[in-house]
Structure formats: C-alpha cells, structure tokens
Amino acid sequence: MIKADLHCHTLASAHAYSTVFELLTFAKKKGLSMLAMTDHAPALPDSPNIWHFRNLRTLPEEYDGVRLLRGVEANIMDENGALDMPDKLLSALDWVIASFHDDAYRGSDIQTNTKTWLNIIENPCVNMLGHPDRLPFEFDHETVIKACREYGKAVEINNHSFRMKRGSTRDLEDIVRVCKKYDVLIAINSDAHVCFEVGEVSDAERLITDMGYKKDLVLNYSPEMILDIVSKKRGTDG
Ligand SMILES: [Zn+2]
Ligand SMILES: [Zn+2]
To answer: Which CATH number applies to 73-237?
Structure first.
C-alpha cells in the first residue's frame, strides 16, 4: 500500500473540487502519511494566480499526521524547457512536476519533444516528469528515461491515464519497461481532482507490480526517500 500521493489538485485549479482540508482528511483516511498539493501553474485557463504559490508557506507542514508538500504542476512552454513559473519560486517549493498540457505546449515531432524533456530534466527545480504517456507528446523513451536516471528525476505513472479515452495516452507498459531497464525512480499518483480520489492508484500499482518493478525505486512507498529528495533540493537553494 502506498504512503504518499505526489500529485493532486485543490479547488484552486478551477476544474478540481476539494479544499486542502478535504484532501488531507481523505489522505489520512486512506492511510497516507504524505500528500503533495500540486495545482496547475499559471499558464492554463483554469490555473490559480501566481500568488497562490507564493503564499503556500501559510499552510501547515503537517496536519493530523499527514505531511503536506507544497508543490506545483508546472507547464512546459517550449522546446527550450521553459516553465510557466520563475525558478526562484519553483526552487522554494517542495515538489515540482513538469507536464505537457496542450493549452501550453503544442505537441511536436518525437525529436523535438525528446529535446524538450531533456531540457526539463536538466532543470534542478524539477522533481518529476508528469504523465509522460499523454499524446500528442511522443518522445524517445530510451533517451529521456536514461537521462532521468542520470539526473535523479522521477517518472510518473499517473493513475488517470488508465481511464482516459483510447488514443490519448501512449504505451505505459513501454515507459515502465524502460524505467525498469535503467533503474529509474517512479511515482504512482492519483492526480486527484476531488478528495475521494486521493491515494487511488490501483491501476498504476497493478501495472508496476505485474511488471515486477523494484519496490525500493517507487517513491510512494517511502516518504523518507521523498523527504530526502526535498531536503537535498532545499540544500541547493542556498
Ligand atoms: Zn496534468
Ligand atoms: Zn494534474
């Protein structure tokens, strides 16, 4: 059973429906001890204002035994790896996801998308590649995932991807296969948009279990490993 969910949205993202309190309450109920709150960075039409992220320190670091990580799901804006939030703010957050969303980045050819991911991976502010299976953002799995290993980035297996309509996601099995080949850290997350979904990662968990993924490379089973990543990141902020 997982102990941490590293991707969820509060009602600050307009197409999500729960408060921080509700998410934390359900996290506790589901037996989690860590939750990352990762609303959409400002480039999407449903995103909160940048002030939402500047003020995240107002939130408690822990509530009722659940550690709250202040995070963001940042939007990849171009092939140079630009994100829609200044580095200064990104580096002050605990958990930074970088994702392709088609309101911010137009899918390009495989070569360009691969180059884009490589630029993202080199960014020390980024912790995790968000739902990399989504189309039309195809990329070279070998090249990108190998770089994740080199730079210590996690690859997300997003539980929502299993429920998306056919043709909107890419071969998740192949992503897991290549992650396994290079011993890359992965995270299985709910991407909850309502409190009832927090910790719901059963499809992603089934896939990685069936494929024999090493448990000690799955962040969700080890809040200690996640805190280690967060504290090292803080250490580089100066
Ligand atoms: Zn997303
Ligand atoms: Zn999301």
So the answer is: 3.20.20.140
